[in-house]
Every structure is written in structure tokens, then in C-alpha cells.
């Protein structure tokens, strides 16, 4: 099987690792906020955000037969964490191996030297690496197909409307006006004029400032 190839997207430079790993792992998890509600058996969960996918593996390097310093090989990996002066951040990479095609940055590299020459130069090394998936903001929005899922309805105010009357209209409870205020950046709940366009968030709603859930 061909060896893993790592490509610098900006420069196009690419290289292959000395030895393929025995295994690799792809990891993904999500963040959920929980809020305990009096009278309910379990707290309510609301999706907050997804975390990055990560790719973990251990790479092995051995230059004992050639009598070369193994750091000449391992530096090709560790240098990927250096800040590019033009980009002002480390380079974006593409790790490919068989069906694996992972666009990422090198987030972590733990290097261990395990064999040495008589003069103290290292001859063998293992590097445990973690690559974080790199996705442009535009690509994330397109993939998620984000529209107005957080807002179930739109409403245009009329004479006499208050946040309480709007909450009563949509939630059957005038006391639930705070989600409407938060969703529309209203500081003064009494400052409602006719002709305003409001977004009415779906319930349950988690206030991003206080973490309070309205159900």
C-alpha cells in the first residue's frame, strides 16, 4: 500500500511519511447545553455547535541504517506547526492515504526519541499527531444549509402591540416575551412601534447571554 502523503495547500509541496501507521482514528463530537426545568424528569438538551473532526495517528521514523539524524525526517512533520509569515497561521494541509482525504491543520505533535547513536544523535522516533479538520466558513454554512431554522415565524407589529401581546399570540403566554426581545435585540421591551418586523423564535429557546431556557 502506498504511504501517507501530506500536501501543503499553499505551496503545493508534498512529502510521504517514512512508514505508514498501523491504525488511525477519526473523531467527532457535538456540544449540547442542558437546562434543568422544574417538574420535568430530565433536563432539556439544546444543540449548541459541532466540534472539529480530528484525525489521530502515530508515525514512526527510523534512520539507523543510513546513520542520519532522524530529526531531519521528523522536522518535516513538526515544521508544519510553524506560522507561515504570509498567512499569519500554520499552513492548511491535505492528508491523503487510500480512501482517506482529510483537509486539516496540524494541531498537536508529541515526539518521542527511542534509539540513539553513540554520539547522542537520535536514530528512531515516534510522533503522535493530531490533525484538526479545516473547513472554510462559507463551506460550513453551505453544508449545514443554514436558513432560518431557529426562527419559526415572522411578524409585523401593529398599533397596540407589546412584546407581551406578541408572546400571547404566538406562545399563548404573555410572560414568554424574553425570547422575542433577545432574538430581535430589543433592550427596552416597551419600545415597540407599529410596522416593526420581528422574528419569533421557536421554543424551547436558550438565552445565549444567561443560558435560561424558555419552554
- Total number of strands: 13
End-to-end Cα distance, whole Å, is 55 Å
Which geometry do the CA atoms define?
elongated
* Helix and strand pattern: EEEEEEHEEEHEHHEEE
Beta strand %: 35-45%
Quick synopsis:
This protein is mainly β and 215 residues long. The chain has helices spanning 71-78, 137-144, 163-171, 178-183, and strands at residues 5-8, 14-16, 24-27, 30-35, 44-50, 54-62, 93-97, 100-116, 122-133, 151-156, 197-201, 205-206, 213-214.
Can you offer a commentary on this structure?
The protein has helices at 71-78, 137-144, 163-171, 178-183, and strands at residues 5-8, 14-16, 24-27, 30-35, 44-50, 54-62, 93-97, 100-116, 122-133, 151-156, 197-201, 205-206, 213-214. It is mostly beta strands and 215 residues long. A seven-stranded antiparallel β-sheet has the order 2-1-7-8-9-6-3. The termini are far apart. 15% of the residues are buried.
Ordered list of secondary-structure elements with their pairings:
Blueprint: E1 5-8, E2 14-16, E3 24-27, E4 30-35, E5 44-50, E6 54-62, H1 71-78, E7 93-97, E8 100-116, E9 122-133, H2 137-144, E10 151-156, H3 163-171, H4 178-183, E11 197-201, E12 205-206, E13 213-214
Antiparallel strand pairs: 1-2, 1-7, 3-6, 4-5, 6-9, 7-8, 8-9, 10-11, 12-13
